Amino acid sequence: MTVRVVLADDQPLIRAGLRVLIADTPDLEIVGEAGTGREAVALVEDVRPDVVVMDIRMPDMDGIEATRRITTAHVLMLTTFDDDEYVYGSLKAGASGFLVKDMALEEILAAIRVVADGDGLIAPSVTKRLIEEFAARPEPAPEPRSVTGVTEREREVLTLVGRGLSNREIADDLYISVATAKAHVARLLAKLDARDRVQLVIIAYELGLVAPPTGGSTT
């Protein structure tokens, strides 16, 4: 299946580079380009892509606000800024992944595919710091999230997702097959109305299933 992609970046050279790269990739297709966040929001409504590759700093409306308004596509944030505030703001707004522009182009292509499949992806340089930063924020959800219908096994899986484990690592930890672990994650996404794996990590923290690291002790 071809993944339909929108490029949103105010730098034409960045868009051109990604466009050339994706043009040679048979399973990816560029269906539109935008130079501002506002243009990106309107374009997504028109063409309904699978993934939006979104710059954070753009005129008219930044990428974080644009991401907040996009609900029909996965958003992969692409920026030159390896900064906690940008990472935190992006994921809070609903982004499925966060990459920095100095990553290899092949890694960006792989990230588009991962995000299109519904998995969250964050650049290795920011993964652990992001989870700790998000967990430490004193911003509880206004109301407790409902976990009605989530089984005990699914809570175990959610806890492991919250700790950053992959499906294979979850399978090894719980002595189940990778296919079973993947099925549990898929059911959690549906039951918790989560867009992707990154949001499951956030939910695990909100529910207290995974505690943020503190000074000298771990949970």
From TrEMBL:
SUPFAM superfamilies: C-terminal effector domain of the bipartite response regulators (SSF46894), CheY-like (SSF52172). Keywords: DNA-binding, Phosphoprotein, Transcription, Transcription regulation. Residues 143-208 form the HTH luxR-type domain. The modification 4-aspartylphosphate is found at D55. InterPro entries: CheY-like_superfamily, NreC/VraR/RcsB-like_REC, Sig_transdc_resp-reg_C-effctor, Sig_transdc_resp-reg_receiver, Tscrpt_reg_LuxR_C, WalR-like. The keyword Transcription applies. The keyword Phosphoprotein applies. Residues 4-116 form the Response regulatory domain. This is Response regulator transcription factor.
